Amino acid sequence: MLNEEVKLSILVVLYNCEISDSSTISSLINSFETLESLKGIVQCTIWNNGPVKISTEKLKIEGVDFTCVQTLNNNSLAKIYNKFILDNVSQNYLILDHDTTFEADFLLNAVNLKGREVMTPIVKFNDRVVYPLWNKSVVEEEGSYLSNLGFFKSIGSGLCFSKDIVNEYISKFGEVFDSRFYLYGVDTTFFMRLKTIDKVKIVVKGEICHSLSKYENETTSLTNFRIKERSYNYGLTSRYYGSLLFNSVKIFLIPFQKLFFKRYKEVNFVMVLKAFLRGEHYRE
């Protein structure tokens, strides 16, 4: 497939997941089989982020260009996303995790996205709408919003944006996703940056079902890992976004806020402080 023909480049990031076990890849295959019009205009990159190498034999569909990249050390999502964007010339870009399900019309929405638009779907977990958020309220119906008139937040899976948006980000920030963030915060800071760009329309369109860790039971070791990641996300966001003075006061109030607010129990004060003072993720 020639680069100039690509209307949509799709990235699917796998972690600890075989091709055959990914609900996202199953949804993609079903979509390509349902809509012949997608063939020849869509390119897919499957990025295995570890921890072991996987077989890619099942990634063969006539008319669809599949590329597989394997990095086995759980690399930074921000750097993976940025590398994918730089390596693929396309009109639009779609980011997906490995555990997302959707119908074929969702891909059509992504293909037809216009120049100064960012699209994110309605996200459901166990039949309940949990994202996106507009000024902290859950958005349950399709619609559009101007990026600079309020704060929008959603997850990375299902996020779609045009080449025009890519060019805006690179011109202003040098990259699309903030590479100072590793796992948590990569999607949130995308929307924080978007708020600084005028006349961008955020389109809520389509629907996906997605697994979300904060709503699921997990092992103690995994919980501790997420606390560490959330803590570094909190510290780095406080360092690089918003008022430095105001954010530093908020950090030193964390031990007291833990007594009254549940969300502060999900972070570790010492880790937040380390991230804030050092200005880098612990894995950098």
Q: Which structural category fits the helices and strands? A: alpha/beta
Q: What fraction of the residues are assigned to beta strands by DSSP?
A: 15-25%
Order of helices and strands: EHEEHEEHEEEEEEEHHEHHHH
How many structural units, i.e. domains? 2
- Mind telling me the CATH superfamily name of the largest domain? Spore Coat Polysaccharide Biosynthesis Protein SpsA, Chain A
Give the name of the CATH architecture of the largest domain.
Answer: Alpha-Beta Complex
Chain oligomer state: single chain
CATH topology of the largest domain: Spore Coat Polysaccharide Biosynthesis Protein SpsA, Chain A
Number of helices: 9
Give the overall form: globular
Describe this structure in words.
This protein is of the alpha/beta class and 284 residues long. It folds into 2 domains: 212 residues, Alpha-Beta Complex (Spore Coat Polysaccharide Biosynthesis Protein SpsA, Chain A), CATH 3.90.550; 62 residues, no CATH class. 33% of the residues lie in helices and 23% in strands. Strands 1, 2, 3, 4, 5, 6, 7, 10, 12 and 13 form a 10-stranded mixed sheet that branches. Helix 6 runs antiparallel to helix 7 and helix 6 packs parallel to helix 9. The radius of gyration is 19 Å and the shape is globular. The two termini are 36 Å apart. The model has no long low-confidence stretch (mean pLDDT 91).
